[in-house]
Amino acid sequence: MVVGTVREIKGHEYRVGLTPECARAYVARGHRVLVESGAGIPAGFEDGAYTDAGAELLSEAAEVFGRADMVIKVKEPQADEFPCLREGLILFTYLHLAAGEQLTREMLRRGITGIAYETIETDDGALPCLTPMSQIAGRLAVQEAAKYLEKRFGGRGILLGGVPGVARGKVVILGAGVVGLHACKVALGLGAEVTVLDVVAERLAYLDDIFSGQVTTLYNTRANLEAALQQCDVLIGAVLVHGDRAPKLVTRQDLARMSPGAVVVDVAIDQGGCLETSRPTTHAEPIYVVDGIVHYCVTNMPGAVALTSTRALTSTTLPYGLQLADMGCAEACRRSAALARGVNTHRGHCTYERVAHTLGLPYTPLSDLL
User: Residues in the chain with pLDDT < 50?
Assistant: First the structure.
């Protein structure tokens, strides 16, 4: 198979879909690897490292799209890349289609086989290709919140860890999954008071256990949420519904319960965000203010730490990519239920039920098309 990767063009996205080590792995299995010149440089990988690994450099992304059987990226195709999408192409990347109707319809119209990292799911419910980025995003969420609490950014002027004789900052986390867990680790490490809300009692019990009671865990009832909002300096949205839009848990009216200058970091923004007032932002302009509350809603948070996140991501996507290259999409999906769950579009059909339901599209099970 001819496998390709291109330079990401989404604003301030520095990650890359294949490292030189990945290219070497594909070449060793007899596959051809095409890399857009400069694709890896923002993440710290020089062109020469790819050629040393046996990859071929091409000057334009359109060449890679035109010649590759499978293109491996990090972020969903941008509008400028739509003309490069062609029938029969396998696109292996983060897609977040439930929050991207235009992209979904474009992929269906062009007959793209879209395999989304975020919906590859093992039989036990784990999301192996989403987990490393969720870990990074959770840790970054607290780091960014601490910065934007500074007065010069419109924040409350609070140091999360406080100092002797002064109260610590209060962090509220909506969601006790991977993002919430790693946000807890960093927030506690900074010395903040941390409260986590979720609807899954087992996850709350797990966090209570591993943090030895240092975290306040609350079942996410409306009353508990309202009380938490009144007290918090930082609110982190860490809600995930696999393959679907995030639920809007916090309304605009709820912002009035928060202290002016409090900071919201909505990690769920890739899936539409879990606050009514959330809208996508970029690393170039990461924040905006609504009713006195600072909102940070960057859609590619891990891109800020590109070297760490590229290595973490590719270590989990590579085994699935090799399966696709070795066997082809149909056979790889027959053999791997986890990989089959990652297929969101195939031959003009929407093959992921939650995406189809959210966007009002016909749903076709992948098994009917293979």
Answer: none
